[in-house]
Amino acid sequence: MQPHTHFLFPLAIGLLLFRFGMISWKIALLCAVVGVLIDLDHYVEYVIHAKKNRFSFIGMWNDSMTKESFVKRSFTHYWPGMIGTTLLIIILFPFSSLASLVLAIAYYSHMILDYIELTQKRFVRWKMLFIYMKESYLNIAFDIIFLTTIVLLLAV
After folding, report:
1. What tens digit of pLDDT does each residue of 45-83 get?
2. Where are the domains of the chain?
3. How many Cβ atoms are within 10 Å of 24's Cβ, its own excluded?
4. What is the pTM assigned to this prediction?
């Protein structure tokens, strides 16, 4: 999924918890930011495997949008990484239940979206200046659903 979807989904979850008085709106926003930062694993994989423009963030982005020249999934996307992250969340809980909750919302929402994205076959593609874009139709639908949910949660 795209970074904005990785931002919107945990934000919607966080705002729902905010509406129930479980967390503050600042923590809901932190969930969303951490949900996007988890995608830095793609950049690390690019730096490790790229043949040229190794440290180019735009090169990494365009490569991920236009071709499959390297494995874009890091260990966090596979069972050992999921188990390790889950153990980290559990170990963190007694020290900071809030940090554990933020990490859990960000990580699991991220993984759900990434695994749904793997099933998609149809995409809308376009280019803005020198940046390539690719969105699945499902991703667009999710964006609309998450934005609507966020607006409704903020309007109440």
Report:
1. 888 888 788 888 888 888 878 876 555 667 788 899 999
2. 3-155
3. 13
4. 0.89
